[in-house]
Amino acid sequence: MYNPRENRIIIDGEDKTDSVERCWYTSRLNRCHVIFCHFPKTYSYVPSKVLWLKDPVVFDPQHCHLLHKGRRIEPLSYIAAFQQGARRFWYVEYANGTGAHYKGTEVELVRSCLEEPPAQDRFAYLPEMPYREVDLDKAARNVLTQEQFEQDGGDGTVASWRNTVTVENVHPNTTVSFRMNNLSGSVADLKLYAYGADGKLAEVSKELWTITDETGAAVDTLSDGTLYELRVSVADGSAFDLSEAEKEIKISVVLAK
């Protein structure tokens, strides 16, 4: 049996984690082998039929909830989303300790608070490595006045906080996510600016950033009070990396209209 909070095993599109005793892959035969609980027989599948998901994104039930067919799932003590590409599966635990799972298309995540997220929610994190926490002592979210924005080279109207974060031991390309809830209008009308080493702002290519909901799905229209994520891809040593240290990035960005 596998820890359901850390593993979801999907076979032919169905979550079979709770019934899997053992799962392994053999390269020589290019097969995934599965032994189910209470059945000694070994079943073999082509690898494309078996999806083993790990490293979930965990959500705080105190600040969000799930809807299934329009009805709230409650009371929940644990909410986790497992994802690979566009495929998403949810695992939840009720207050009595029992667990349940859902396909991504079956449920909807709803934030239950509209104010600034509390510290434990982490306004900045690494969506591709959710198990690693961003050191908030090396992160900041500050007001950037319109006057300062224009003096630093920005064009348009300031539309967000100035978000700054430093991350150590990064991959060559790392995605950093900033949570924000003061956005409205069309995503197409927004521009992202980043500070360079010269202290000036430069526009970031739209290929390097996106705005998503809390589950990572891209959005086109924004509603004030709804929590969104600004996800920025940063290369170590790039023009927007303010850190000179190897395998460390520091970025400082702001949205504008």
Please give a structural write-up.
There is one protein chain. This protein is an all-beta fold. It has one helix and 24 strands. The chain has a five-stranded antiparallel sheet with strand order 15-16-24-19-20, with no helix packed on it. The longest helix is centred in the middle third of the chain and has 6 residues, at 146-151.
Features:
46% strand, 257 residues, 5-stranded antiparallel beta sheet, 2% helix, mainly beta, single chain, 4-stranded antiparallel beta sheet
Question: Brief overview, please?
Answer:
The chain is 2% helix and 46% strand. The chain is mainly β and 257 residues long.
Question: What is the overall silhouette?
Answer: elongated
Give the distance, in angstroms, between the N- and C-terminal Cα atoms.
51 Å
Strand order of the largest sheet: 15-16-24-19-20
The major β-sheet equals: 5 strands, antiparallel
Range of strand content: over 45%
Number of strands: 24
* Helix run count: 1
Q: Layout of SSEs?
A:
Elements (H helix, E strand, L loop, with lengths): L7 E4 L2 E2 L4 E7 L4 E6 L5 E4 L4 E4 L3 E3 L4 E5 L2 E3 L2 E9 L2 E8 L4 E5 L3 E5 L12 E2 L13 E4 L3 H6 L10 E7 L4 E8 L4 E2 L4 E5 L5 E3 L5 E4 L8 E2 L5 E8 L12 E9 L1
Antiparallel strand pairs: 1-2, 1-6, 3-4, 4-5, 7-10, 8-9, 8-13, 10-11, 11-12, 14-17, 15-16, 16-24, 17-23, 18-22, 19-20, 19-24, 21-23
